[in-house]
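Weekly modeling sync, notes
Attendees: AB, CL, MP (scribe)

Item 1: holo prediction request
CL wants a bound-state model with adenosine-5'-triphosphate before deciding which constructs to order. AB pointed out that an apo prediction alone won't tell us much about the pocket. Agreed to run with the ligand included and paste results into these notes for async review.

Input as submitted:
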Amino acid sequence: PPRVFSGIQPSGDLHLGNYLGALQRFVRMQDEAYEQTVFCMVDLHAITVWQDPKELAHSTRELAAGFIASGLSPEKSILINQSQVPEHAQLAWIFNCVARMGWMQRMTQFKDKAGKNAEKASLGLFAYPALMAADILIYHATHVPVGEDQKQHLELTRDIAAKFNHDYGVDFFPLTEPVIEGAATRVMSLRDGTKKMSKSDPSDASRINMTDDADAIAKKIRKAKTDPDALPSEAKGLEQRPEARNLVNIYAALSDQSVDQVLAEVGGQQFGAFKPMLADLAVAKLSPISTEMARLMAEPDEIDKILARGAAQAREITAPILQKTYDIIGMVR
Ligand code: ATP
Ligand code: MG
């Protein structure tokens, strides 16, 4: 039966890329006909790079508030914090023993995040994709909505499932389908059209945070890097213009239109005219969500209760799957 799993790291503030590439699509999938949808704050992933303990706790609750404020419902979906469901980490160890070093060495996220000094990266950052495979497969999830940057990790998840099934001669873990669709599967930095918008980018001006107020959003869009030309009237005209393409993609995703529909409306305009339209649209979409997030954050105990309930529901699925995995491997219980 089709099951959906996806996660976001409490590694900083939620941003427009997370919203358009992930959250907005989680909400749609929640309301479609899947047997189960599970959405996770992946705190174990966040600590693959240093997180201040107070900030980690704050970001985890704020992320939960962002999930709920965006339309995820604890009545319809299982909402969890990763470290509260121990089977994720337990299965990850098994997958550390299934995955090969060479597979991990090819992961572009590791190369990007470790930078030039890979010797100093944590072992967890290297093993990140094995934990991600465990997050997904501990639910036997079949569909995983993510942004374009996670495509390679999902291919690795399939490789891990296939190798486990092959090595133990079973047909146990499903081959998961990535769900990467829409106009905003890769929202780019506002300061550099070749880099994706990220929580971990040190420049706050590079992203629109879901908690930014209207003034901050307008200012960041006004200052966003662009070229001096007017907008083209069809998508082909954006090919060599990464910054222009990014702003048009964002507009399309926020207004639920195709890029061609947007350009039919705004083609020929200068950025001086287009940017305020984009800012208004972003504010209209994000400000009700950030207001609701702030309301939820005023009652952190309620958030903790929701996560505790989610963890209990999740373990009804994950505990038997881990048990069965141990049986397959020959671990004495
Ligand atoms: P970090 O910089 O800490 O890795 P992040 O901004 O990349 O944070 P993640 O928590 O790693 O966010 O990713 C959560 C989800 O958001 C994933 O599905 C990812 O593909 C998606 N996502 C992240 N950034 C973007 C982006 N710029 N555009 C579209 N989707 C994105
Ligand atoms: Mg990321």
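Recorded for review: The chain is about 55% helix and 5% strand.
Action items: CL to compare against the apo run; MP to circulate these notes.
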